Amino acid sequence: MGKHDKKSAKGRLDKFYKLAKDQGYRARSAFKLIHLNRKYDLLSKSKCVIDLCAAPGGWLQVAEKYMPKGSLIIGVDLHPIKPIPHVTTFVADITTPECRTQLKQNMHDWKADLVLHDGAPNVGSAWVQDAFTQNELVLQSLKLATEFLIKGGSFVTKVFRSQDYNSLMWVFQQLFKTVEATKPPSSRNVSAEIFVVCREFLAPKHIDPKFLDPKHVFKDISSLPTSITEPIDPSSSTTPATSASTSAAASAAARLASNNHSHANVFMPEKKRRNRDGYADGDYTLFHTATATEFVKIADPVALLGSTNKIEFLTDEEKLWLKSRHTTPDILSNFSDLKVLGKGDFKALMKWRLALRLELGLDVKADPTQDVTEEITVEPIDEEEQISEELKRLNEEKSTRQRRERKKANEKKAREILKLQLNMTAPEDLDNEDKALSGEAEMFDLGEGEKELSRHGRKRSLDELVDEEDGLDESEAETEDEEEDDEVLSSDEERELRTQALEGELDHLYDEYRERQSERDAKYKVKQARIKDKNFDAWHGIKQGSDDEDDGVDKGYRDGMVRVPRRGDDASDDEGEDSEEGGWDVVAAQKAKLDQDADSSDSEDEDEIEERPIKKAKKAVHFDRPTVAPTRRPASSGLVQSLQEGEKRAEMSRQAQLWFDQSVFKGVGDLAALDGDDEEEEDEDEEMEDSEEEEDDDIEMDDASATSSTLDEDPELADDDDEFEIVPAEPDEHGPEWDVDDENQDEVKQKIIKEKGLLTAEAVELATQLVNRKITASQLMDSGFNRLSGYHKDGLPTWFLDDEAKHYKANIPITKEAINILREKQRALDARPIKKVAEAKARKKFKAFQRQEKAKRKADGVMETEELGDREKARQVSKMMGKATGKSKEKKEKKVVVARGANKGIQGRPKGVKGRYKIVDARMRKEVRAMKRVKKAGKKRS
Ligand SMILES: C[S@@+](CC[C@H](N)C(=O)[O-])C[C@H]1O[C@@H](n2cnc3c(N)ncnc32)[C@H](O)[C@@H]1O
Description:
Layout: H1 3-7, H2 9-22, H3 30-40, E1 48-52, H4 58-66, E2 72-77, E3 88-91, H5 97-107, E4 112-117, H6 134-148, E5 149-160, H7 165-175, E6 176-182, E7 193-201, H8 214-217, H9 247-258, H10 262-267, E8 289-291, H11 292-297, H12 301-307, E9 310-312, H13 316-322, H14 329-336, H15 343-360, H16 368-375, H17 383-423, H18 432-437, H19 446-456, H20 462-469, H21 474-490, H22 492-520, H23 524-537, H24 555-558, H25 569-574, H26 583-600, H27 602-610, H28 638-645, H29 654-660, H30 679-695, H31 703-708, H32 715-723, H33 745-756, H34 761-771, H35 777-784, H36 798-807, H37 816-831, H38 835-864, H39 870-885, E10 895-898, E11 917-920, H40 922-941
Parallel strand pairs: 1-2, 1-4, 2-3, 4-5, 8-9, 10-11
Antiparallel strand pairs: 5-7, 6-7
Helix pairs in contact: 3-4, 6-7, 17-20, 19-21, 26-27, 26-35, 30-38, 34-37, 38-39
Bound molecules: S-adenosylmethionine (SAM).
Keywords: Methyltransferase, Nucleus, Ribosome biogenesis, rRNA processing, S-adenosyl-L-methionine, Transferase
Protein name: Putative RNA methyltransferase
Domain DUF3381: 269-417
């Protein structure tokens, strides 16, 4: 919203309208009550409130929000009000006895602490037909208030400034100790409405009905003065005072009476106001004419000019005036349409009138001194002036209040800024409502700060700026700002300097913020590590090194499939052509070469990108597990020794040894050769092998080979030693890494793809396009050189780069197919057993294997015993083997026989039951079950 908008009525309307919407109020008028409540603290002390004319319910919402919990809130309107929690509403016309009855019913003999009235008659229908005008409605609401208000209670009503305003105020003053008129900031200035807050209801025992009778309170047309100079006497209701002699003049006077502020309209057009009083009685036309005689002879010519459209020259005398030298063509044309005249024209007409009156002898030319005396004569203050004075007072009050509020807001702002500096609180956290109430548009206006800096030519803290703003009138501030804008813009250098200073400050704050984050957030380090990984993956041109500069991530490129250059790529280029990382020339040369290759054979290119052979990494392979694997198992290993004790030593493959060396197998026992005889075991092995291979592709394990061969027997395994060397992994806090210095980036990436496949939807998408020949490799390369790759990072603040890293990346459109491929992959991954399950299975198998080995050894011993016969030997061997395989553990099933019917009370085996059995009591079974249930439930609860 621009400055102009902010000040104009429309802007204000928009502001409160939007705020009401934001804060869930049903009408912008809600803010009027908020403002009134702020000033007079009406709601927090009230336990019972009646809102007359409450639809759609904005005031009710405010009352509900600010009144103590459990208060009685009643709303009445001609229109139904959508339900509001804790609020009672009903439909009624407040001018009817039914409304009174309903109110009584809802009040349950309570008395209201507060009666609100924001009613406005339905001006959609013809004013003339409307039985009650606004102020009559006010009187009606006052009547209800006097009936339902508690002694000392308050009454708030909306009044339209009009001729009846003073009469109303007078009535209020008779019934309440304090009566104040106020115009809340949310009430538009152009609106004639004003709010009257009457406090401390006197609750007289008897109220003269005349106080509440519109006929007595409001002056009827005949009682109104015909001249603006005539003082208003609200008590007079019968003496019509008119100086006009003719009937035409009388009707004009009546009209004047209803428009007795017209003189202000004529000479002060900027104060033109809407007619809130409707038409004067008996005068329902908009076009009015007056005769020249009326104009010349009337006591209040200004008022006549203001209420008339045309002055006519009808009588002979008037026609004679047409020939007067004073009646120029200009004057004549002015008389023909008074509504289009300006101030000057009216002055000319008044001069014409004076001249004519002098000629006619109606006026005597006064000498200049007399004129002066006349001019300074203090005329009695008329109603309009009283209202203007009242308004002036209100405006002064308002500006004082605004200043106070601004000061408060500034203090708050200072606090918020401090908070921002300390905790990086988001400016959006600031309370919207308060912002609105203080009339503040933006709480954290960096622009203002910048301007301030520019103005004073030095770097100052934001708190200082806030302090300085204190006491500065809003309009003054705005004008100054406007002027300063020009001043600032004229000095670019100065501006630049100050921008830098501000940026420096921001950078510093950001650094502090990150520091705090790192202290607070345990995951921050992990995040940073990830960012570091991303840096590693970033595009650096076609080169063999790494670049820490770029912190973006090119997922495609990370996957080794897509080399889409990323922002900041050329930052490294810019660092110099002689940079060891390549530079533009090198990149361009490489690209040209690639293009050439692509031209010769696109498919070749594709192969090159997709299936670049992975160099066998013979140097250092770091596994993502805490294993510290020795290159060779020491011969003195306790595990091996124990195996050697047996006659048939089961040796494992080297990979198997590594596998069982993991910490998870610690304490399980000795390693022994696996027996491949057991079919069941074999199946399990296969299963495990599959899952293990999937679980960790870095380690290959072949249980079958482990069971059937030894290191000595299997030459292949012996060869293995030469080509596969495991070295202790370097402790690395960031998890899986590869040796940056030694590895070729492309190879590493290819390796990752081989191991893990494509990891991002973008990579899958581009790979699919390549495979389906929708794009060629060179096109892909070309697409990498886009605007995102030409992004200079030099001199940009860290916070900006950090933020850009999140969003400033190539947007590769992704198809459904690509997403589906990834999803499938994820599903397959999810379906795999988790590592712990695989480990547990392996442990179980390992123990079983050990048991079997032991049983075998024992069986051998039994077989060698000469004392035993073959049958006995066979029995013992089978028993041992059964134990080892766990088959003997299988318990024979016990049959449960319920002791009822024929089985009730029997001793011994029930009839027809073979094998193991148990007789149970039906009742006991139920009870035992119940007890178990209770026990289980108790456990769960604890
Ligand atoms: C400006 S709105 C009131 C807005 C309300 N204070 C709010 O915040 O939502 C004026 C209301 O006065 C109601 N009204 C006018 N004459 C009435 C009457 N005689 N009895 C009851 N309600 C009346 C209209 O129906 C209209 O809903």
